Amino acid sequence: MKIGARIKASPCRLCGGLERQVLATRGRGLEPLTTVVCRGCGLVSHHPLPDPAEVAGFYATRYRVAYKGGWEPKRKHALRALRGAIARANRLAPLLRPGARVLDVGASSGEFTYVMQRAGFAACGIEPNLGYADFARRTYGVAVETNGLDDARIDPASLDLVTLNHVLEHLADPWAALRRIGSWLAPGGLLFIEVPNLAGVRKQATNTFHTAHIWNFTPETLGLLTWQEGFAALTQADLAGTSMVLRRRRAEDGPPAGADASLAERLARQVATTGRPLSYLLSGAPVARRVSRLRRNIEERVVCARHATVRDMADAILDTACPSLEFEKSLSAFGAAA
Length: 338
What we know:
The longest helix is centred in the C-terminal third of the chain and has 21 residues, at 285-305. The protein is 41% helix and 18% strand. Residues 323-327 and 332-338 have low confidence and may be disordered. It has a single domain, classed as 3-Layer(aba) Sandwich (Rossmann fold), CATH 3.40.50. It has helices at 52-61, 63-68, 75-92, 111-118, 130-140, 174-184, 205-208, 219-228, 261-273, 277-282, 285-305, 310-319, 327-337; strands at 6-8, 19-26, 32-38, 44-46, 101-105, 122-126, 144-145, 159-165, 185-194, 215-216, 231-233, 243-248. The protein is α/β, with parallel strands linked by helices. The chain has a seven-stranded mixed beta sheet, sandwiched between helices. A five-stranded antiparallel beta sheet has the order 1-2-3-4-10, covered by helices on one side. The protein contains 13 helices and twelve strands.
């Protein structure tokens, strides 16, 4: 199969289209991986789509070792996750009442669950990877269930917020996942989704696509997918990127625009031009990325070395996250004012 080839496939879940265009035949590490774009709407995915049972087994036992190099996170990875968790908490806490019930789907090593718990919310998580879920429970003392979505023990209409941070792109069936999550949300409940934005990627194609990301979204395709499963963006600004806060869809909420043939054309051109090795090299991005990574690694080594344990590091950072107030009191005050 050649790059640029047009092929017939089963109906697209997003638009029903039957034609795909091949964007790449290799993924990260030059592994064989065919990635296609739907010519009708711009949704990008593996071809063929993987078997759901194989996906579940991969995430339960092999994913973290393959992509993070271990059965539990390195300290620097825990630090990055904690910083991201604090940023999400500061964004989402103002939208919640004090004591709101929060579920983090794909909880990883438990940082977001811990941050929200310390902020005064009833937070728990679901993490399919056995090692990372165990690390979360041992390190932070949080309630992280080792399960997939289909096996999660969640009461209907029991949650005020569900978060999926860089999770949806990994799922065999995002439509079914959103339908199930919708049943867990209480009236007025919110959904947070963040995924990589393919439209903003400036990498070689062989570094853009990889086995773990079954789907590659843009703001347009993510907006339409969530709309199809009963959600709408909380604000218009949420539709501008692929980090969205969503509420339940109302009768007056029409489908978001832009997931169409012109998007498919733009993505195909993007991968064919900026994704070429020479174009990527001439852009200066490889040098900039390496310099940025070196600076980050040095700073992370300094921070990690200051603390005896990961939990000590997390508590110290949380204690200073809001200089004038204790972190949990500050976030709870934001929630009460919302």
